[in-house]
Amino acid sequence: MTSLSPQLTQQQRHYLERIATYTAVIVTTFVVLIPLIWGFLSTIRPSEELFSWPPVIVPSEVSFENYHILFEQTNFALYFRNSLIVALTTIILTLLIAIPAAYAVSRYEFHGRRYIANLSVLIYMFPLILLGIPLFIIFQNIGLTNSLFGLALAHTAFALPFALLLLRVFFLDITPEIEESARLAGASRVTIVTKIILPLSLPGIVATSIFAFFLSWNEYFFALIILNDSALYTLPLGIANLIDMATTNWGMILGGVMIMILPPVLFVFLVYKHLIKGFGVSTV
Amino acid sequence: MSYASDFITTAKREFRYLARREFDELQENTVGILLVLPLVATLVALYLYPTVQAIIYSLQDISIFLGDSEVVGLANYIDLLRSGTFYNALWNGIIYTAGSVLLTVVVGVATGLLLNRTFTGERIATGLILVPYMVPTVAAVILFRWMLDGLYGVGNYALVVSTLIDEPIAWLASTRFAMPALILISGWRLYPFVTMLVLAKLQTIPKSYYESARLMGASRWEMFRHITLPQLRGVLFVAILLRLVWTFNLFDIIWLGTQGGPGNATETLPIMAYRLTFIGNDLGEGASVAVVTFLVLAVIVYGYFRLYGTTEEPR
């Protein structure tokens, strides 16, 4: 690029700046996506092209054989199902526990309220390993190891502090006047929550669910500690295990990786509109 | 039969009604406490109790199968502080944390600044640049293991072609290069966290600041140095703090990438604690490493606050 000498007119300068911005955006986007692009290309090319030097960049032919093998010859579908069960259970448990607590913290005056709100910050300082080691023993004693519910419970504990913070922000956004007028009209506490607070804070509830889903879908450490039986493996454990078993079949393993990446990415795009719309809900 | 079911339905309704009225008449203080009770109970059962339990285990000579245990006081800690593997893990953790945090912050700030510019397709570009944060850790590590493969890795090919290296390197299997490779993976996976925080903050800086600076003849660099950076200070303080804590405690990327190897080359404290407990079956020693991890972290965080936390309150 030419140097921005003072002789350049305003117009030229502006033009150069545009070019620079677009180049930077395109190059950056491409560079950060290289691992994903390369991973995907590796799943659809003939397997002999995976193991060639120099590597072939553009696949000579497209085949979805790897995805076929993944579902036919491995327990991938089972891992996927297990992950889904754990994630959904985590979402439900998190909402059931965090919604009342966040509501109480944002609306009611009670002893210890301040501590609850500040708890989350402290809790995220805890090394996972410090919790994981004793949790393994505790869960073993009460029969929650080798249990998808046990894993969901661990994920819930991990999701709760942030869920509390997130929901609190949304609850605080609803003006207390609405509740005040509802109360004057004779609505009970429960009615106020189910008819006013929950519908108005739906975007917050969706956001919290997405967060809990991400956390659970991604989580490897507790799964590693809690699950021993390979029939109960969630995706992170299952895919990591495929590597140990079939080191050479990278095409198939990366196929699993691609499928695993899809739900979190899709999830966000699907509810994106809803989220944006939700933020615009007026509370007057 | 139908009378009975009618009766039950009515009774249920009646009961619900009474319960609601009862609930409405409770003191605000009582309602508040009732509502947070499940949360507090869960956190006590799954955070506080295990932590206390870990401390108790760390004072015992006890295996993962429990069985015979013996209280040995601080013996596990003393053994730990006398062993070379501990200092190796501590040092690895510091290197890994410093490298990853530096990389995520630099890339995060750069991408945040870039996305804050006005251009067509902003939303798509923002979405795509944030994608690595949505990629599960296992997926990210496998993608990089494939790209950094010693025989067929395209990353190696790119480096050889650009003559940065002479021949392919088995990154994750090399004592020298495993740590940089892990830092690279962590950086890629985690920079969007910083991007999001920085971008959110940048969008709140009033445009008028820059306009007045421009009128006074400030250069771009001066504006960045004297307006943007000071405005980002608060958010960077928080971002670095959280990344520092999470990276020092991080387990999955290292375990999936190298399992702490080759040898002990990439073993950090969490990895060491896991290895001692679940592979060595030594619950007492493993728990003591976990407790020490927490203590070291507390010292680091305290130091961080003393160094940077005084002039401006974190937000």
> Total domains of chain A, how many?
2
Strand portion of chain A, in percent?
under 5%
Overall mean confidence score, pLDDT of chain A: 84
Main pleated sheet of chain A: none
Q: Which structural class do the helices and strands of chain A define?
A: mainly alpha
In percent terms, what proportion of residues of chain B is strand?
A: under 5%
> Which outline of chain A best applies?
globular
From the alpha carbons, calculate the radius of gyration of chain B and give it in angstroms.
27 Å
CATH class of the largest domain in chain B: Mainly Alpha
Strand order of the largest sheet of chain B: 1-2
CATH evolutionary superfamily of the largest domain in chain B: MetI-like
Q: What's the average pLDDT of chain B?
A: 86
Approximately how much helix is present in the residues of chain A?
Answer: over 70%
What is the H/E string of chain A? HHHHHHHHHHHHH
Question: In DSSP terms, counting alpha (H) and pi (I) runs of 4 or more, how many helices of chain A?
Answer: 13
Poorly predicted regions of chain B: none
What separation lies between the terminal Cα atoms of chain A?
53 Å
Please work out how many helical segments of chain B DSSP would assign.
13
Radius of gyration of chain A: 25 Å
Largest interface summary: A-B, 85 and 86 residues
Membrane topology (chain B): Multi-pass membrane protein
Domain ABC transmembrane type-1 (chain B): 90-306
InterPro entries (chain B): MetI-like (IPR000515), MetI-like_sf (IPR035906)
Transmembrane segments (chain B): 30-49, 94-115, 127-148, 168-191, 235-256, 286-305
